[in-house]
Design a protein that fits this description.
This protein is α+β, with helices and mostly antiparallel strands. It is built from six helices and seven strands.
């Protein structure tokens, strides 16, 4: 199963914003909603294509209420997430799945909340240590080169 995780902006309640609007509620109606991080909504989809399609269906809401949209595709990585742009590039065939591991956005995880991302590249095949603050854990998100530079 491919997972989609939407992380809300700090000043909104993402679940409320999504479920209080008919179109978003309808798009999410067939999914079991989870909250893996504070102020997030996650669902399982059947494929990378279905995950990108769901994100496209929810785009109006994501632009207004979400900080980021993440996709975890087990054929690429079972532990690392893909940014929405990277997932779309892989789905469209613009980028090979084997070429997704170089550019990273590493979030600190503190009390179930994703905190300030650190941009990094792998060093000798490993993820550099998160050093922006003391955290409980980290969440690694693979990003496109354009997202990395921007």
């Amino acid at each position: 199963m491919t997972q989609v995780c939407l992380v809300g902006d700090a000043d909104v309640d993402l679940r409320y914003e999504l479920l209080s609007r008919e179109t978003a509620r309808a798009a999410l109606a067939t999914y079991d909603l989870r909250e893996p991080f504070a102020n997030s909504v996650a669902v399982d989809t059947v494929s990378l294509g279905a995950a990108v399609s769901l994100l496209n269906d929810l785009n109006w809401y994501l632009v207004r209420f979400a900080d980021c949209a993440l996709v975890r595709e087990p054929s690429i990585s079972t532990e690392e997430w893909l940014s929405r742009d990277l997932a779309e590039a892989v789905r469209d065939g613009a980028l090979d799945a084997d070429d997704t591991a170089e550019f990273l956005r590493v979030y600190g995880l503190l009390d179930d909340e994703l905190v300030e991302p650190m941009y990094a590249t792998r060093v000798d095949g490993t993820v550099p240590e998160y050093d922006l603050r003391s955290v409980d854990d980290t969440v690694v998100v693979r990003v496109t080169e354009a997202e990395f530079g921007g």
